[in-house]
Amino acid sequence: MVLTRVFLITGLCWVGLVQATPEIQHWQTSNGARVYFVPAHELPMVDVRVVFDAGSARDGGKAGLALMTNGLMDEGAAGLDSDELAGRFDSLGAQFGGHSMKDMAMFTLRSLNDKHLLQPALKTMAQVLSQPDFPTDALERERARVLTSLQHEAQSPGAISGKAFYSAVYGEHPYGQPANGTEESIKALTRKDLQNYHGRYYVAHNALVAIVGDVSRAEAEQMAENLLAGLKEGEAVQALPKVTGLAHAKNIHIDHPSSQTHVLMGQPGMRRGDDDYFPLYVGNHVLGGGGFVSRITNEVREKRGLSYSAYSYFTPMREEGPFTLGLQTANKNVAEALTVLKDTLDTFIQQGPTEKELEASKKNITGGLALRTDSNKDIIGYIAMIGFYGQPLDYLDTFIDTVNAVTVAQVRDAYLRRVIPPLMVTVTVGGEQGVEPAGSEH
Amino acid sequence: MGFRSSKKLGLVSGLVLILSACGTTSMHTTEAMSEQSEATTRSAKVHEYFLKNGLKLIVKEDHRAPVVVSQIWYKIGPSYEYGGITGVSHVLEHMMFKGTRKHAAGEFSRIISEHGGRENAFTGPDYTAYFQQLEASRLPISFEMESDRMRNLLLPEDEFLKEVKVVMEERRMRTEDKPGSLTYEQFKATAFQSSPYQQPIIGWMNDLENLTVADLRSWYRQWYAPNNATVIVVGDVNPDEVFKLAKKYFGSFKPSTIVPAKPRLEPEQKGERRITVKAPAELPVLIMGYKTPVLKTVDEPWKAYALEMVAGVLSGGKSARLSKELVRGKQLANSAGAGYSLASRLDSLFILEGVPAKGHTVAELEQALREQVERLSTELVDEVELERIKAQVVAAKVYEQDSVFYQAMQMGILETVDLSWQVGEDYVENLRAITAEQIRQVAREFLVGDGLTVGVLDPQPIDKAAGHKMSGGHNGSH
């Protein structure tokens, strides 16, 4: 283990930035999937990512269905069992995996570009995408493993708080349902459910392919074509239900025998492509997204030593993803830490950032551009996001100017309208000395 | 889910494992170092320099993007600490951001941020390291700040008193409230009796509670010196220009007298050890560790590479034995992994760990893992299996070049455990040379019962009766 000075939060408001912006080439496969390609010839390797609008937001009342479908696809396909599939990728030196989140479900491949390695890896990937067998023995095994992962979560105050937070912020909206389901919902899933889900959502019109690496345009076209050739054209998905704002504050405390209390506070935040995207994003860098230079870290950690990690961030999604503030502190300090967190937020909303703070944040965001696209891995994540959320292809080219155009007045205005402290969810999970969230006065 | 299972072979992957190593003292001396421009390098892109004061500079060119990563590695860390002050290296790492005469507390971070950079620091068993990532032309900013805090740290007591609280919160988050981590900490403290690898990197809570700013001041004076530091720069830079910069910013410092840490060699283990940790949890965890040498301490280097191959056979990818046979085949394990890293300063452990599958016990899983070890010391590994692992290692060597940070990190670890960055360059070649017979030989020599320590997490009920309290409504908030 290596300890770091700052706990790095993954899934932070992810804005890829590019300086000499990579030129994104875009076309469609013959069966209607969108393709995004950036050639990169410096290293003899290629990254491929196939993304479907098939995350847990599409569970349709069967919580865990998206995750289980994605997880089972490489446990048996085209008559090959899990061992054979894994053996093929491993023996080619390829790295292959599936991932399922709230919006996206995807498969990723990293391979050397030697065609004797790349071609068979792509072929196996295509089989996983289009011909999953959903073998019953693998289904039962993975079902048991997901159930075990639920137990693992139940011993982690961080995981418990995250789940309770989403549930309280989103209620019945699909974003409020746990991606890995519940014991009951996981036990109820059938092989037929998985097959139907795959048939409906793993289709070309609901797919995009992102490719970055040492291949030509012609090779990339052929790769994308072959990868998706076995998929039905299908249909794009319907829009998700709109997120409704919270009608009132919710304060939730869950007892857990831990020495720290984990605190999460927030409410629905913003969508990808939101009109207020840039003022909210740039403003949050000042508030709690900029690490040591942010106000929340300064107030909670630097001035008072109350938490190792204290932060705020937006998670822009298809519909309004959450705005989240969080920290963890010794049980006896919860009341104080929550007060500091709330006061810092309130002050920021009322006064906005100072000119100096905003300038500093813009410099970090724009000046860090080169760092955020300095690898194939960064770039493929970025173009997949652009494709998935329908962002303009010149998004990167205009990014710096757009960030630089944000004013103090715009930030203040956006926060006043969009972040409503009296309508926040506050979740605390922790031990005996944990107190009721400071907001509940009765 | 398995915490810490190492999925891929590679020098840095072992890191995730808190593995540690063995042996001889490794302190670095200051004798006879001349300012040479470029030493023996087998890689056209890596350049090695020394300043007269003993600071070592390694520069690797990577012109793919206009960026640079700069890391400074000090040969000081938890494995140099002794009883009563455990955690001091890591707390000092935190305090390195709390100001010098020239820069107030927090100013380093502000300056880097305004230059569009990222910065952080980390502490591993054998090192404390600091880094900045910047647009390439801004490298001097990094050198200016690192040189300033190498010698001019203020260590104000009021800042220390706050920061040590932050570290205690970090310990609660990472260890106290994580039953798996807690078990691992106790396991290590049992496996090692004399070796400093028995101590947690973050330090024991009671030591943190009793740490003083005076402890930090003397630690800083003792270890932060040009002749105890290696600067690693990877990116879109000209090596000779970087060397000039290094001379400008670090060249004026005088070397310190670095007194090597005591060897604290671990006495030979004379029989199996076993501990149980009881903590509120849902799932049991099993950790098994065999005492092993590392590249620095082993009698013949190939043995360290062969041990890495053993880890690969067991858990190098989804097709490796533990996943294939225990997770999928017999379905005894919910997760299972093996890990070993050849890159540490002192003798280390070869670790097997896992969580039993529902309906199976820790004892059954332990038995299955022992059978795996037994099989390695009797049967030869199949050629197909061997080739598969080697294919992964060869490919991973290309993939790692996608990250300048990883490249720098790998060189930094190797240098601070007194190996050389060249070990990284030759790693694939050395692994590829390992035969099935050699794998069996190291399994027989090192994966043997008398050097084994077993740790088990025995889950205690999480009191759910207390439950869920919810308040709210229109008056629920101010």
Features:
heterodimer, A: about 450 residues, alpha+beta, Cytochrome Bc1 Complex, Chain A, domain 1, 2 domains, six-stranded mixed β-sheet, about 20% strand, disordered C terminus, B: alpha+beta, globular, disordered N terminus
Summarize, please.
Chain A has 442 residues and is α+β, with helices and mostly antiparallel strands. Helices cover 42% and strands 19% of the residues of chain A.
Give structural notes.
The complex is a heterodimer of chains A (442) and B (478). Chain A is an alpha+beta fold and 442 residues long. Chain A folds into two domains: 25-228, Metalloenzyme, LuxS/M16 peptidase-like (Cytochrome Bc1 Complex, Chain A, domain 1), CATH 3.30.830; 250-430, Cytochrome Bc1 Complex, Chain A, domain 1. Chain A is 42% helix and 19% strand. In chain A, the strands form three sheets. A six-stranded mixed beta sheet of chain A has the order 2-3-9-4-8-7, sandwiched between helices. In chain A, a hairpin with a 6-residue loop joins strand 12 (310-314) and strand 13. In chain A, helix 1 crosses helix 7 (191-201). Chain A starts with a strand and ends in a 12-residue tail after the last strand. In chain B, helix 3 packs parallel to helix 8, helix 9 packs across helix 15 (436-446) and helix 11 (362-378) packs across helix 15 (436-446). Residues 1-9, 12-42 and 472-478 of chain B have low confidence and may be disordered. In chain B, 38% of the residues lie in helices and 19% in strands. By secondary structure, chain B is an alpha+beta fold. In chain B, a hairpin with an 8-residue loop joins strand 9 and strand 10. Chain B starts with 45 loop residues before the first strand and ends in a 5-residue tail after the last strand. Chain B has two domains: 27-250, 2-Layer Sandwich (Cytochrome Bc1 Complex, Chain A, domain 1); 273-460, Cytochrome Bc1 Complex, Chain A, domain 1 (2-Layer Sandwich), CATH 3.30.830.10. In chain B, the strands form two sheets. Chain B has a six-stranded mixed beta sheet, sandwiched between helices. In chain B, strands 7-11-8-10-9 form a five-stranded mixed beta sheet, sandwiched between helices. The chains are: A alpha+beta (442), B alpha+beta (478). Strand 1 of chain A pairs antiparallel with strand 4 (118-124) of chain B.
